[in-house]
Amino acid sequence: MPKKPLLEFTDSGIYCAQGRFYIDPWKPVDDAVITHAHSDHARWGSKRYLAHHLSREVLLYRLGDITLQTVEYGEKVMKNGVEITLFPAGHVIGSAQVRVCYKDEVWVVSGDYKVEDDGVCAPFEPVRCHHFISECTFGMPVYKWKPQQQLFDEMNNWWRQNVQEGKATVVVGYSLGKAQRILQNLDFSIGPVYTHGVIENTNEALRRNGIVLNPTIRITPDTPKDEVRKGIILAPPSSVGTPWMRRFNPYDFGYCSGWMSIRGAKKRRAADRGFVLSDHADWDGLISAIDATGCEKVYLTHGYTASFSRYLNEIGFDASEVHTLFGEDESEEEAPTQPPPKEEGQKSPETSEVLSSGEDLGEAPETSKKGGTS
Ligand SMILES: [Zn+2]
Ligand SMILES: [Zn+2]
């Protein structure tokens, strides 16, 4: 009789029967191990949660009063004889890959990850394993990120220019991850940094967790418009096109997303500037990360799973796609509104699932809960 795999894909999520726990379950379960606090990975309703220390305050802020155990990277936790260890995923602050080991069999669940060291969260660390469960949000050759310094130089120059022209500068990025990465790379000699309430709430949670972030000023109805124009405004995707943003008129607005590398994406967002900034691995990053695990088998959970697994099989990996709800109903990376250009030898990638995800759903619950910005 073939042996049951250590991790399996069930209706509730990735499950370890031996250890009786789930990783990033999308249904309420007894024991949930959470890779990171983005809403498609950390869902409400489970009895007990396990996550990295630095996810603590954001998880409590987003999920409310949950039973949460937190651990350091590399610290071993046993659940019913199965060893669990978290390793840095380089995605956002507190993000982790989950290594699961039982009787010398090792599985790693990547969660979301990027390989470039962003200087804000602990850098991605490859973990040797037999089975690797990987995301592939940007698993197409068109996605190739520039070094972030180049991007932030462009952003700071754009901001400086706007200040000189008397325009406000609004930069849009997801509240957990992008916002802090931008904040830590802005040139404070140009001016102060103002924040939308959704972003400031996340910053505050991170500060409660001991993270030192650059200073920010929360925008309230009383914040003088003339002052804001000398600074830069960090805003979440949900604020685009709202009266909240329009009140900064005249302003220039820049959108930060990996999808900005697709022609036309900036225009569809009605953005003045598109910054190709992502907290996910690009094409080369995915392949190097998968290769570095030395795994026998790779499972692809979200992104261009079909075309990417075909490609991996062609170059000698044993890859297959699995169906999960990651990246689907609430995505930290807004999906493109149309597929990217087709590559040689690749069929149209499976964007339909990605496409179905709402643009700014990831932010919506927070916005409504906290009543917007002020
Ligand atoms: Zn994520
Ligand atoms: Zn994800």
From TrEMBL:
<dbReference type="InterPro" id="IPR001279">
    <property type="entry name" value="Metallo-B-lactamas"/>
</dbReference>
<keyword id="KW-0540">Nuclease</keyword>
<feature type="region of interest" description="Disordered">
    <location>
        <begin position="327"/>
        <end position="374"/>
    </location>
</feature>
<protein>
    <submittedName>
        <fullName>Ligase-associated DNA damage response exonuclease</fullName>
        <ecNumber>3.1.-.-</ecNumber>
    </submittedName>
</protein>
<keyword id="KW-0378">Hydrolase</keyword>
<dbReference type="GO" id="GO:0004521">
    <property type="term" value="F:RNA endonuclease activity"/>
</dbReference>
<feature type="domain" description="Metallo-beta-lactamase">
    <location>
        <begin position="11"/>
        <end position="120"/>
    </location>
</feature>
<dbReference type="InterPro" id="IPR036866">
    <property type="entry name" value="RibonucZ/Hydroxyglut_hydro"/>
</dbReference>
<dbReference type="InterPro" id="IPR026360">
    <property type="entry name" value="Xnuc_lig_assoc"/>
</dbReference>
<dbReference type="GO" id="GO:0016874">
    <property type="term" value="F:ligase activity"/>
</dbReference>
<keyword id="KW-0436">Ligase</keyword>
<dbReference type="GO" id="GO:0004527">
    <property type="term" value="F:exonuclease activity"/>
</dbReference>
<keyword id="KW-0269">Exonuclease</keyword>
<dbReference type="Pfam" id="PF00753">
    <property type="entry name" value="Lactamase_B"/>
</dbReference>
<dbReference type="InterPro" id="IPR050698">
    <property type="entry name" value="MBL"/>
</dbReference>
